[in-house]
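Usage example:
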Amino acid sequence: MSTVSPGFRGRRGRPSANLPPGQYLVEDFPVLSAGPTPRIDLDTWEFTITNETGERQRWSWDDFRALPSEAPTVDIHCVTKWSKLGTDWEGVSLDTLLDGVETSASFALAESYGGYTSNLPLEDLLDGKAWVAFRFGGEDLEPVHGGPARLLVPHLYFWKSAKWLRGIRLLDQDEPGFWESLGYHNYGDPWREQRYWGD
Amino acid sequence: MARAAVLGRLSWRTAHLVAVREESASARTLVLDVPDWPGHLPGQHVDVRLTAEDGYQAQRSYSIASATDGSLELTVELLEDGEVSPYLTQVLRPGDPLELRGPIGGWFVWRPGDQTPVQLLGGGSGVVPLMAMVRTRVANGGTTPMRLVYSTRTSGTVLYGDELRRLAERDPTLRVDLVYTRRAPEGWEGPVGRLDAARLATLAWPPADRPACFVCGPTGFVEAVANLLIDQGYAPERIKTERFGPTGS
Amino acid sequence: MTGPTMWTDGNMLASPLHDIFQPDVTAAVAGCRNCGWTGPMAEVRVFDHAPGVVVRCGTCDEVLMRLVRGPGRAWLDMRGLNYLQLPMADQT
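Running the assembly step on the lines above writes:
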């Protein structure tokens, strides 16, 4: 049992009934990163969806920004225990991007500039549950938070919302991503506190 | 004792704060009483862990400022948006417990028996582990030729100013030079601004002496100074660096 | 915490890896499988503001090691290393 430090509270608010188990509220937006922030030129940026047969759909930044976008307000929960409620984003729904993609795949692998990956069932990207987000809090998404564009899948722990998104691969077989291959839960539902393998 | 300080198991201990010294407007030295402290080598650090009543924990690393003998001292800089430094510099009171473990780190250390001339280069709070080296050398009656180049913003941000001045005055084999990057004190006749190649050449041991170099401070400072040293022909295998990165707050 | 450098150096590996490796790992020599760089672990780039600790080569940025601490267990992946040469006491 650790010694309690008299008077220490740390940088967090009170736990709230709205939060998944084990989470606490923060006011700031902590920056977590597994690597250096990639510098991505909008002239060369592209987003690709590749289906299980290898067929590709590609969008340049201009193509992407011409698509209809939405402005979801969502709660986000990081596996390192901080949560932020009511965050405002702007992004293109994965329903829009996947419309017209032929697939019978069950799984998806999000891939980032810089090599990061995260995996999730394809159905967790559909029906209004996920976006490719390019604005946060009314401003262009900052590079440290994943700009120019990141995946936003708020119903799962936030490590699934891959920053610096460059593409999504649709797969017949599930492929664990960067953290899922080293102890983090393959699915990651914060409400069932699925942080690690075996949870 | 020195061997035990580098190898061996680490476990959390409860130390108690004995006294606080104000080093500058934003930095405090915590003088700690640590039961059964195994000793340490200058350059090593400790992990400090804070626990709130509901079990929430935060952990940070701090370089040991003190010489190998005597009480354990840590110098903590208050960071405005920090989580741990505000507690350590403004809330923790003499008599309060503080959990820590250490000593940690076997790379960025100076061993007092070593006679190789030493070049210390510190930026901001990077001077803390270097001060442990200076103090250890003094405590051991050392004769190892040692120079410290200490880069800091103004005379108000200098740590250990009086002590460094006194030590250098008494000991011709210890040289201390301050580099003021933003504003120099009254009467200062030297240059003001970041350490550059020309300045380094006038202050440091020449490369031909192959000094053991210890560079410590924020990442930007360390990268710049390490590059200067390499450019000027200092032996790269004798350069050791420690960057105070984003984890310290 | 914006800015180009989100990493600190391998001196910070001493704590998380001390629970796993008895000898001090910061003085160990590492070899990068990707670019062939070798040098002290103290010189690698450590990203520890993440769900785990990610260690990258200072020359090519590829991942050398990853460490995740979970309740009651840890996962360590060292596939990015050619080898790790650890300082050890002589065998007697």
